[in-house]
Amino acid sequence: MFFTVDTIIIILSNRLLDLPASINIPLLQWHCVLDHTHCVCSRSLFVPSINIYRHHHHLNLIPLITCHNFAILSTVYSRLVDLQPVDIKSRWRHNWKSAQVVNSHLVCDPTIRQPGFDLPQQQWSLLNHFRMEQGHCSTCRRKWRLTDTDLCPCGETQTMSHIVESCPRTKLNGSLSRLHSADEDAVSWLISYGS
To answer: Do 53 and 93 share a domain, yes or no?
Structure first.
């Protein structure tokens, strides 16, 4: 019995989502929402699967990730198949609501494209750095050991949320919720901040 690569990817992806909490599922959740890829059928899930393999080597996923031999893939299929029908979008919504994701309140439905999806790559990337609170702010740079201080030029601790919400030099009226909406003023702010 042979199966297409896409069938195997869907099955493997379902299995990856069921793994224990030692995997950084919140980051995986944001990745899928921001790329607008369905968690259970995205080829991008195989990038973090190397880290999953380190924690769950007994699953022996590495040969499946790199192998295009359908005979090998089909022999493993019987161990991974879930015969119960799955509503992928409902499962994704449930996983999103139950995950401990930073700023998850911004996304009501992870199965639809988020505001700003059609922005140029530089603005889209910067917008997502603010959404995830991970980017080039003093706090992150200090954590990454790129600087010795986590202070903003205004004197307060500089986080991504501080830049948008409270810094007198860069504050956006309407804060992160407004930025997430990616309306005209928010995009202008992103362009001016990013240049």
So the answer is: yes
